[in-house]
Design a protein that fits this description.
single chain, alpha+beta, 25 helices
Length: 821
């Protein structure tokens, strides 16, 4: 008994089972050392600062100007990143090797680079706009000239020059060309006029219809597709355009057509009817285009060169600015002391980290040449400490599964310790097939073996989620192979892996054991389900019975583990009330009913009895004193059932009444002076957990405590039934997975293989492969994962887990490198 007690105490005090012990500390930092001290603490990443200015807005804090400067530099860096990305260049993934520069110097350099880029972008945009206009003008001259050849004798040169329309006031180059080659003359209002231009192909039909209606049919519209695509300035993309010429008569028609051109985004350009002048203008436009193209290429080369230089340092600058902003955000959480010469900060840190924090603060004092050292001392705190579990890349995913339900209360038993095994095992019970398990194992091994390469890449949502849970998938695959060997299923096909079957044909002349029945003739199959059950008439009843009983056994064991952890919690926090009036009645109630059912299942398996367990459990409540008859599994079963039933009935009021009344009695005694608490000393032992982690008593409300205890008791009693039934999902999903796999194998693969045709066999194999991959390996995996998650969150963790804590979030630079803006 003494050894057992020591073992239980050792298990209850396991360090990895509970969060790290935390302590509340205060820092008094001289002003000249603040920036360097906070930076060193950020490198260490083991101190969570408390905001001492939470009553102030961000604009009322001390270092708001520095935060604004860092925000402005971050904006410029995002601008540079966007420009590098648009130019199709790759920013260096490794920070530049140049020494660190001061923040002021970096700010000046970023401002210079931004002005230079904005100027280059502005010039490039203007030149590009002029180039596009000249390109469009060239296309209009080439296409519209052909429409005007047949009408060259109908329209005089003077009227033509007078009626040409300009849609853009800023079109300086083209206007100068026309002034040199054409002089406006008197117009004949009664003569035929025309407008030429270019428009997007997608708008041509609507444009033509609108022109027809506006002029009441008094116009002639001619069009031709442009030989090359043109950059649209509004859409900023290359589009297909159409050159058009509209012939009309009258000043009013011209005004309407011009308004319609503006509304549809059509660009109008002047085209002379004289072929000689057309050729002359076309030559000048082509010459100007060549000059602009050379200018644009030179500007683009210069801009890319500047962007390459920026991209080489971009990551280093970004990390530097993020660190500076994080430092000033943290400094804004600190307060000045009365003398305004020191900053005072408070926060939480793990007890094991105190030497490291003190060393970092000492280095900050030395490096900043401060004459006054930084004061670091432990304080008491009213609020509960944060929860901090040290995890690695293997245990982190399991801890995230638990934290998704709720962060553990400070020093509460951590379910993730057991979830590492129980979660993949319960998944495998539902997914058991060693063929499918091997497929999952291959995928998990790919993610695990290439984790360094994949971890440095930006993955898609689905692949990133799978990569984060790669070790969960690995264990799920291994347990699936194990359970698949027990079920003896390889893509639903049984194999004689561990020897010959224990069954043979009932008749020595039979050749088809699937229809004639089986008879046992030797020792049981050494491991797992005998392959001869597959396809026999008794297969479904046998497997149903096996998996249903197995689900109840696993469920009762899992729930008992949860109740046992509630004992370790109560023992750790020194709550004898929870042990006597919560743990003891709960363990008695659950095992008096469902623990007894699990015992009957094991006895029935061992003895081969044909007792009806449904009948036994039902009449245990309806007629506990009646004779069991053929349903009796062992001697003394009836008195044992009566005893267990009485214990279960007694356990309910045992859970409900004593605890609230005892708490009320203790509360009244405390205020009547009959019991005294130990007075705390002024000095604190820095190596032990401070009183900040102790429970603080609030005002006692008996009715609230009683109602809470009543709800908890009713929830446990009803939950014992519903939770046990909930574990039957292990049986249901295992059966569904097995039957689906059998259907795909027999009705798809074997059916196709029955035809002596290669094409049909190939199609059957492809359908079978896709069904296995997308239904059994993806949908069924997700389904079993979610059901295993529910069993842990609801049926298991509600026995002991409060999950009302909050995470330890230290100030750390480690996450800034991969953090998105």
């Amino acid at each position: 008994m003494v050894m057992m007690r020591k073992l239980i105490e050792k298990v209850a005090e396991m360090e990895f089972m509970r969060s790290e012990k935390m302590t509340f500390v205060q820092l008094i930092i001289p002003v000249e050392s603040t920036h360097r001290a906070v930076s060193y603490l950020g490198d260490l990443g083991l101190l969570q600062f408390k905001d001492l200015n939470d009553d102030k807005s961000p604009f009322q804090r001390t270092f708001v100007n520095q935060v604004k400067r860092c925000g402005e530099m971050s904006r410029k860096l995002r601008f540079f990143k966007d420009q590098v990305s648009k130019a199709g260049l790759l920013a260096s993934s490794r920070p530049g090797m140049q020494p660190d520069i001061e923040l002021e110097e970096l700010e000046i350099k970023l401002a210079e680079h931004e002005l230079e880029l904005i100027e280059m972008n502005s010039n490039s945009e203007k030149l590009g706009q002029t180039y596009n206009e000249l390109q469009e003008f060239q296309l209009v001259l080439q296409k519209a000239g052909g429409f005007l050849v047949s009408k060259s004798h109908a329209v005089s040169e003077e009227r033509e020059l007078d009626e040409n329309v300009y849609s853009r006031d800023d079109y300086v180059e083209t206007a100068s060309l026309l002034e040199q080659n054409m002089q406006p003359g008197p117009s004949n209002q009664a003569g035929l006029r025309f407008i030429s231009g270019i428009i997007c192909k997608s708008k041509v039909l609507t444009f033509e219809r609108m022109l027809f209606r506006a002029t009441r049919g008094n116009m002639f519209f001619n069009q031709a597709p442009a030989e090359q695509h043109v950059m649209d300035p509004l859409l900023t993309e290359v589009v297909e355009k159409v050159v058009f010429v509209v012939f009309f008569s009258g000043e009013q028609a011209k005004t309407k057509i011009m308004k319609i051109c503006v509304a549809f985004g059509a660009n109008c350009y002047p085209v002379p009817e004289d072929i000689t002048k057309q050729r002359q203008i076309l030559r000048e436009v082509s010459s100007r285009l060549s000059e602009l193209e050379a200018t644009l290429d030179a500007g683009m080369h210069h801009r890319n060169k500047a962007l390459i230089e920026i991209g080489f340092h971009l990551r280093k600058w970004t990390i530097r600015v993020r660190k500076e902003k994080a430092v000033y955000d943290t400094l804004n959480m600190l307060n000045f002391d009365v003398t305004k010469k020191c900053l005072v900060g408070e926060g939480w840190c793990p007890i094991f980290a105190k030497p490291q924090l003190q060393d970092a603060l000492q280095r900050a004092t030395i490096d900043s040449n401060s004459q006054v050292g930084i004061v670091f001392h432990v304080m008491d705190a009213v609020e509960s400490p944060p929860t901090y579990f040290r995890t690695n890349r293997f245990t982190n995913a399991f801890q995230e599964i638990v934290d998704a339900y709720g962060v553990a209360r400070y020093q509460e038993a951590n379910p993730a310790v057991y979830t590492v095994i129980t979660f993949p095992f319960l998944f495998a019970v539902m997914f058991g097939d060693w063929g499918h398990g091997i497929c999952l194992l291959l995928g998990a091994l790919y993610l695990v073996l290439r984790e360094k390469k994949l971890g440095s890449q930006k993955l898609g949502n689905f692949l990133e989620m799978a990569f984060g849970g790669r070790y969960i998938i690995l264990l799920m695959a291994l347990f699936s192979i194990y359970c698949g060997l027990i079920y003896n299923e390889f893509f639903s096909v049984p194999f004689h892996i561990f020897g010959d079957s224990a069954y043979k044909c009932r008749d020595s002349s039979c050749s088809d054991s699937h229809t004639m029945g089986l008879v046992k003739y030797r020792a049981p199959y050494p491991f797992g389900v005998d392959p001869s059950w597959r396809g026999s008439r008794s297969e479904l009843p046998f497997l149903n019975s096996l998996k249903m009983k197995m689900s109840i056994l696993l469920g009762v064991t899992h729930m008992n583990l949860g109740i046992l952890l509630s004992y370790f919690n109560a023992r750790f926090f020194g709550s004898s009330l929870d042990i006597r009036y919560q743990f003891v009645p709960q363990i008695i109630f659950l095992n008096s009913l469902f623990g007894y059912l699990a015992l009957l299942i094991v006895i029935k398996w061992c003895t081969g009895s044909k007792a009806d367990l449904y009948h036994v459990m039902i009449y245990m409540f309806l007629s506990p004193t009646d004779d069991l008859g053929e349903n009796e599994l062992f001697w003394g079963q009836r008195p044992l059932q009566i005893l267990l039933l009485v214990l279960a009935l007694v356990a309910v009021p045992w859970m409900l009444f004593p605890k609230p009344f005892i708490l009320r009695k203790r509360h009244s005694e405390r205020f009547q002076g009959r019991s005294y608490g130990m007075l705390g000393t002024s000095e604190m032992d820095l190596d032990v957990e401070p009183s900040s982690a102790r429970q603080h008593h609030e005002d006692f409300n008996f009715s609230e405590v009683f109602v809470h205890q009543m709800i908890h008791s009713i929830e446990f009693v009803l939950g014992a039934v519903s939770n046990t039934a909930s574990y039957l999902r292990l049986w249901a999903l295992s059966l569904a997975h097995s039957e689906l796999s059998t259907v795909f194998y027999e009705k798809v693969l074997l059916l196709a293989w029955g035809y002596d045709n290669f094409a049909i066999r190939l199609v059957g194999f492809v359908v079978f492969a896709f069904a296995t991959a997308f239904i059994l390996l993806m949908m069924e995996t997700l389904s079993a994962f979610l059901h295993a998650l529910r069993l842990h969150w609801v049926e298991y963790q509600n026995k002991f887990y409060h999950g009302d804590g909050y995470k330890f979030r230290p100030f750390s630079f480690a996450s800034l490198a991969d953090e998105e803006d």
